[in-house]
Queue: 2 jobs
Job 1
Amino acid sequence: MYPSRFHYEAPRSLDEAFGVLQAYGDEAKILAGGQSLIPLIKLRFAAPACIVDINNIPGLDFHEEDSDGSLNIGALCRHRTLERSPLLRSKYPTMSATAPLIADPMVRNRGTLVGSVCHADPQGDWASVMLAMGGEIIARRADGSERAIPVSQFVVGPFQNALAQGEIAVRARVPAARGTRTGTYLKLERRVGDFATVGLAVALEVSGGTINRAGLALTGVGPNNIQCTAAEQSLAGKSLNASTIEQAARLAAEAAQPKTDVRGSAEYKRHVVYTFVTRALSNRQASAA
Amino acid sequence: MEERRINVVVNEEPKSVDVEPRLLLAHFLREVLGLTGTHIGCDTTNCGVCTVLVDGLPMKSCTMFAVMVDGKSVTTVEGLGLPSELHPIQEGFREEHGLQCGFCTPGMMMASKALLEENPNPTEEDVRWGLSGNLCRCTGYQNIVKSVLWAAEKLRSEAGAISR
């Protein structure tokens, strides 16, 4: 398949990139990993007049903790890096569980977390993880100013994000935890590499057996990733036991908005949400004991 | 028509070519350079037959523009071995009957090359995960996995021979 023609720019700095964005306005599209954008362009669902390839801009391929304990993930940090990251393995179990479940090895070598969240595909796994962890996208403007947009407000609809014209998503940020992080990502897929039939991100911040903050979010069971606010609130300040787990699982299943499709019936998917929450939280309870 | 000059090393040979930005890397390799060992299967980023190494990492050449490999090095199946001097991975596919129709084979081999470079002593499960982005419509996976394990052993024994 042949994409329609476009003008191509490969800026060497963010300043240059902002210059291109200014010249082309909403006809310009940022290309990072390209693993979602290029398929869209090939199918001609997207036909941007100008592609701004940011892969040659130094300083965007990183993931590191700030002095305040928050985690920053640069716009060119690939899934591959996150999959192999000792930092994530030791301190960010939800993210560490997610990275190897993104698409397949070749896509993970190229695709990026920030790009995935920007793409706002309702089937995207990272947006659920960011919702569960209270993550933000940092948008930068030509004048160097930045604003932090919580992912709950960043994803505004299917394939729609809250970036304003002239802004570039330069990194994602996960705020410091209150306590120790525990969590996981569970993904039911028809075959390896498929989009999720149901995905569940669980991110808890725990001290002394008490949950200071609970994050639960769902993939594949709604028009967007769904944050299970009621289930999260039901867990906050509590400890994990059979009754709190059951209540959270029920509230999460109620928050799901599944549709019957090739991947399964709505009832089935809702049941999987219930089962996944029960399983994920029971395992956390077992590992804490 | 807009064109850009790209400088890319393909199978250790430097190339300097003007390309249209919309030209996919897979089409560049096949139609501009005539390297038809890289196949195009699904064209929708699913099947992995177009896998090539870009700076040593396997990537889907149907999901990159040729302009994006400017300044990089690309290895295709033609760069793996010669008919007279097969790469151990190619030998493994021959020895263990790792191909039926052969269409997925170039992608399988390139993904295997990167897999074995990162993990010279993989388990069967490691191989299956490592090749999880490569589809075989003949469903010849059993023998493909055996082929890669055969190649791993051969590469290890060669490395052992060199170090002795």
Job 2
Amino acid sequence: MGLMQSTRIAVKSLAANKLRSVLTMLGIIIGVAAVIALLSLGNGTTKSITSQLTANGTNLITVRPGSGGFGPGGARGGQGGAQTLTYEDAIALQNTDKVPSAAAIVPQVTSQGQVVYQGTNNSYSVIGTTSDYATAYSVSAASGDWFGPGELSGIQNVALIGPNVASDLFQGEDPVGQTIQINRLSFRVVGVLTKKGGNTFGSSDDQVFIPITTAYTKLSGRKAATGVVGHPINNITIQAVDDKHTDSVQTEATAVLRERHRTTEGTDDFSMLNQASLLTTLTGVLAAITGFLGAIAFISLLVGGIGIMNIMLVSVTERTREIGVRKAVGATEGNILTQFLVEAVVISLLGGLIGIGLGAGISYAVSSLGARFALFGSSTIASQIDLGSVLLAFGFSAAIGLFFGIYPARRAARLNPIEALRYE
Amino acid sequence: MNNHTVIQAENLVKSYQMGDVKVNALRGVSFQVQSGELVAIMGPSGSGKSTLMNLLGCLDAPTSGRYILDGDDVGKLSGKVLAKARSKKIGFVFQQFNLLRRTSALENVELPMMYAGIGSGKDRRARATSVLQAVGLGDRLFHQPNELSGGQQQRVAIARALVNNPAILLADEPTGNLDSTASAEIMAIFQRLNQTQGITVIFVTHEPEIAQHTRRIIRIRDGLLAADEPVLAPIVIGASPPVQPEGSAATHSMNGSSELVKVAGLTS
């Protein structure tokens, strides 16, 4: 008897007990749906975070004032509060003899500013920096131009605005050459940046850029910590010449800063964040979370499998007489084994298929709803259903059917036909 | 069909262990059945006749002794070979009919062919149809067991038993659950199969009158062969006034023999 016929018999007997079959399947459906949804959401989120982190290249190192480890978010406040990193530190780092692996040094002063143009009033992140920002983060001006060393040394009130800022304030008008107020100071708009799109960690589309000298003299109002000489800034981004030089840049820059700050390891009043290592840490954490959730989903799949075994055992008992009849008319143990095994596999595969559909639906729904329940800032929860996890879930549900089906099926196959026929 | 020995039982012994007690259900039974015989096995309950039927039907293996079925020594065979013997050489008819529920008459009859791996789906359907027609159920092909009367169910069971062209047809109290009309119908079918096709039929019965439809009665008592006697004046249904069969199956039942010949031609 072929597999086709076994499948037909199996489907028929499953159809005869529709409610029971569906309930049995439910365990597998939920398990597979959970596996698919969690894995795809995990993969998607990992991918989108990775791509956001690497959008600016992985050769960036950020120096922040204050000691202590970097962590996303939490460390920011504490470290930002320490006024120990200065613009003069950034100038010192530009010494190519001491930091040969650096391609660009980008000091930044970040503040929130009230930006006004002809009665339109909005709050934006205002970043005081140098034109090296353009190279390090590859943000070019769509119209106008970045400010140069002249504007920097002249402490001029000039600004580049992100495309969203331009559209918010100017509504189609050409902003270049116009005057805006940032915290009641007048600034001439010298350029509009090209659109870069969303980014978990703040997009230049929504930011205003001014010369760092202007920022620390006129806007930020930061005071250097006692004993610190110079103009305090928020951070310095160092771009290494390539990905392979991030570690050497870190070493070189650390040496320069320790010399200037007269600190040693352990007493440092600055910290460095290597983007590559942040990425590794973050993806590691995400993988762990995904794996953990996946493991929980896996357990529910296992429970579903036990449900199948339970129902199959009941079914074997209930159909003892049928098994006896089949044996009496010539069914071998193999025939009976195949019949019940196919039944279990059909249940679990069908459940698996429905579960894959459901899981895909859930992850799609979560990712489209997730735009509103943003995980980080403006980011969305992306979902990424890859063939691998579908095949995994499908194969696994088939395996569950086989594994949990084999015991009941063997029990059925080994029934003594005489006793089976006598069974009431 | 030339005569040969279909069943050769030699000193069949079967004992069970029931708890601490050893039950000797059969204590050495020997007999032979030639092809084309129509035999009734009788005996009080507990005599071992059901055990004997199980052995003859290859549902069970004897503790000792030899059982040669249609030339093959099947007494000491493995489960798989016994299953094959059941599939190809034996047709079973039960007191309880034992048809598969929620399964049409046609599919019930196709089942043994499926397990024996005979023919394509189309062949099986054709053959099952003709065998069902032969037992007078040509208009009940797609009925499920619960839609059929007891007599009709038993005729489906007979069709199922016949469909693989077995060497013997074994029936365990085939009329035990039927009224006298249906019982006579079943006996008529057995006699017709036996006479027109030479099919060997062995059945167990309690009823002396049913046993009188055969030409030989084997009596079992206390696990031993008590008597093996010919029936001097067998009741032949075709010879007596025709039994009025139930329902619309009547006409089929009456001209069934010609259809059986057709079936025989199809399968030999």
